[in-house]
Amino acid sequence: MHDGAAPSRGDPHRQAGPGPRERSEGTGQVVIAGAGVAGLTAALALARQGHRVQLLDRDAAPRPDAVDGAAAWKRRGVAQFHQPHSLLARLYAELSAALPDVVAELTAQGARPVTLPDGLASLWCRRSALELVLRAAVEAEPTVDLRHAAVRAVEAGGGAVTGVRLDDGAVLPAGLVVDATGRRGRLSRPWSGDTVDVPADEAYVSRRYRLLPGAGFGTVNRGVIPVAEGDGYALLVFPHDAGTYAPLGLHPLADAVSTSNPHFGRGLALAAARPA
Predict the structure, then answer these.
(1) Which UniProt keywords apply (predicted)?
(2) Which helix (H) or strand (E) holds 139?
């Protein structure tokens, strides 16, 4: 298995991205608020097109040096960071087309390619491992400046965006601002208006394990994960990178289980009876 070292600036995989002669001339400073998967991939794409990028992340925890430390990486600003994830075929296709060096490094770090029907493919990989490899690629990109700062608001004037204001009051000028703060972010609210946040009405718990030497993941019956279902419960097992996996127990609650005509007044009784 790969020793887990982060990719360096001299990593040959980075040659898969656009070279200096292929990059277009930048059109000014870009500020990206949020350094999750969306912010990291946007930073890489814009930087490799010739833009200067400032990537702002409110989480101050440094990136671990290797994927073995990904499980202890504290990313308080990223919801469900350590919960199990499966990479959809669309994500794998987008990364392969735009950031092939990232896919190559993920595979070198222990992510396993998965063949799917209809010529599709994906990877068995933890969310934390994906972000670690993306962050290392961003840190190695010469025109990206990663800063630990929280953005309070977007500055605008004359009908155009002019920058962002940080929590400490400082203003960073920008010709383009990318809001990658997630679904609960508020930076774009003045333009996007109210949003609807519908609860999932599901409760789940998960835990991470590592396979014993020589052991395999077993049969996969639902795309990239195996699933077993029972009376109101489901067990999903997420194979991940470097021999790790995460079982997740899922139990739907309330209206996710059943709905009732309110005229009969039995909704509360059914909701209380189900957990019992």
Answers:
(1) Monooxygenase, Oxidoreductase
(2) helix 127-139
